[in-house]
Known about the structure:
- By secondary structure, this protein is of the alpha+beta class.
- It contains two helices and five strands; from the N terminus they run E-E-H-H-E-E-E.
- It has a five-stranded mixed sheet, covered by helices on one side.
- A hairpin with a 2-residue loop joins strand 3 (57-61) and strand 4.
- The longest helix has 11 residues, at 28-38.
- The chain is globular.
Amino acid sequence: MAVTVRIPTALRRVTQGQGEVTVEASNIAQLIDALEKEFPGMKERLVDENGEIRKFVNFFVNDEDIRFLQGKDTPLKDGDVVAIIPAIAGGNK
C-alpha cells in the first residue's frame, strides 16, 4: 500500500531535503522499516533501542494520533497520509 509520509524539517537532511515521501507499508512499524530502507539512519531517530517509538516523536495517520489508535500496529491503507511530528517543549511563562 502506498502511503505518503510528511517529514518534519528536523529530519529532512536524512531524506535529502524531501518534505514528503511515499513508501509501501501496511502498518506504522512497517512504515518505519521502509523509511529506514530508503533513508538509512531514519529509524534510530524514530525509535529507541527497544524498538519503541521515541517519546518526543508523534505519528498521525490522517490527522489521528496513533497513541489513541494501535500504536506501531496501527493499520495503514493505500492513500493514507502519515505525519511525523516532533514534540516541542520548553518556553517561558
